[in-house]
Specification:
With about 180 residues, the protein is of the alpha/beta class. The chain is built from 5 helices and 7 strands; from the N terminus they run αβαβαββαβαββ. The protein starts with 6 loop residues before the first helix and ends in a 14-residue tail after the last strand. This is Methyltransferase domain-containing protein. One of its GO terms (molecular function) is methyltransferase activity.
């Protein structure tokens, strides 16, 4: 697993307003560390205790939770997080509750595998692959404003078919969504 911060997360993380950030399915904490370096208190969640041990650090609270086990419920309250970052993870039953945990001016940064990824290897199970436009549907259905969206093939850290979204809640100021040019 790569320890390199996703370019998508790196580009859009500066939009996250001050406050606590959730790194969901954080793995060894590459994004948790990056978010902490930007001054955020980070809640890093994963089901793998070894990965969480690697993710632990200053301003990072690690929590071992298996959100896919039978009877699992979303453990976080409404409007808690200034930002939520998710990469390489998809568990659709969580989406509505996860998005409800985003603060009124919060930022969602999501990047994971999409339909068509089987040509590059795993994951290939449709349960773990976003369908065409699925991230855009989430944004539309949950009142988020899309700042950026991509759907296509990436080459690094390995070839994969992905969808990427940066979306904000309604109270996020439009002027704050402007980034420096590439």
């Amino acid at each position: 697993m790569s320890d390199v911060v996703s370019p998508w997360v790196q580009r859009y993380a500066p939009l996250i307003p001050g406050g606590e950030v959730l790194d969901l399915a954080c793995g060894s904490g590459r994004h948790a560390r990056h978010l902490a370096s930007l001054g955020h208190a980070v809640v890093a969640v994963d089901r793998d205790p070894e990965a969480l041990a690697a993710a632990a650090g200053p301003e990072i609270t690690t929590t071992a939770i298996d959100l896919e086990e039978a009877g699992a419920v979303w453990p976080f309250g409404l409007e808690r997080f200034a930002g939520i970052v998710v990469t390489n993870y998809l568990h659709r039953p969580l989406i509505a509750d996860m998005l409800a945990s985003l603060a009124p001016n919060g930022v969602l940064i999501y990047e994971t595998f999409a339909d068509g990824n089987a040509q590059f290897g795993k994951p290939s199970n449709p349960a773990f692959l976003l369908q065409a436009g699925e991230l855009l549907d989430w944004a539309r259905n949950h009142g988020l404003r899309v700042v950026a969206f991509e759907d296509g093939v990436i080459d690094t850290p390995k070839a994969a078919m992905v969808q990427r979204l940066c979306a904000v809640k309604p109270d996020f100021p439009r002027v704050a969504a402007l980034l420096p040019p590439f």
